[in-house]
Amino acid sequence: MKNATITGWGKCMPPAVLTNDDISTFLDTNDEWIVTRTGMKERRISHVPISELAHVASVRALAAAGVDASDVDLIIFGSCTPDEIVPNSASLVQRLLGIEKAAAFDINTACTSGMYALSLASSLIRTGTARTALVIGAEVISNVQDWTDRNVAVLFGDGAAAFVLQETEEEEGVLADKLGCLAESRDILRAHGMGTRYIDGQTILGTVWWNFQGQEIFKKAVLGMCEASAQALEKAGLSTDQIDLVVPHQANLRIIDAVAKRFGVPAEKVFINIHKYGNMSSATTPVALVEAIEEGYVKPGMNILLPAFGAGLTYSAHIIRWGERVEPVGSAEIELPPCEKTGLELVREMMQRPRAGGPF
Questions:
Q1: What integer pLDDT is reported at residue 196 of this predicted model?
Q2: Whole-model pTM above 0.85?
Q3: Is residue 358 part of a domain?
Q4: Is 279 a catalytic residue?
Q5: Catalytic annotation, pick one of 111, 143, 181, 252
């Protein structure tokens, strides 16, 4: 039976950091308030378009796999903040990589986009449609952030991660997954202003107001992640005790703690990097998995559980069996262009952009 194993991994984090103390210079908040409620201390702000973050992460993933870009026959780009809607961002990454004829498409399920992309790529490899896939989770959410709203401005950051998946006969890669959506609750996490319905001569496309009902999101997120994880475990024929590492979506430390407690997972089995990056939407779980590999948490043959949720309210859970290799085959000499500004300076520039209209 064909499977799709992860052979390469890479991330790209913008260098500009926005700390909680920085945010307190333009919002009524402070470090203690943010850390207590979210577990976040800082996040990254990108000075380049999302395609550049995705390109760098992809080059690093290909080098880690020891795979030439010309061997990639499928690119799936998970994001809700693409450079453009038409044409898609996957095709731009394809061009930047110099790949001529790969299938390339974007997917948007908000914060779960990178994980949905992992499921799709794995399935297409299993069916023989593709043999080598590049899966990307990337976000430049700072550009569509409402920096006047304390409820959301403290939560999100920018970043990208990519994985190379290849065909294998070994029992590796995604052993089981569960994807779903609590559509009746889609309005509790909603970004007004992104989409053609807002083109009315008064509202600027891309000027965003957020509907963010924190308490309801918390309840639905814990419910979705726990139910998806339970179903994925059942499909894989595994118990919670057989999971060696949990790499959850890093949206809120309280949510992570609640999911771990409900499943009886000890803290030492849960990988957390929310304090460094906040919630990077589609990039969050992919970046966390890359860092778990880089920091030595991932061992050969491990069973890894990755639960996530996003606006929609989409949810997912993946059980991955890691292969034998946890060290990259090679490295790539590629970096982002230098950034001459701080995260706070970049955000203050964004705050000077004209706003129009209001929520619909």
A1: 64
A2: yes
A3: no
A4: yes
A5: 111
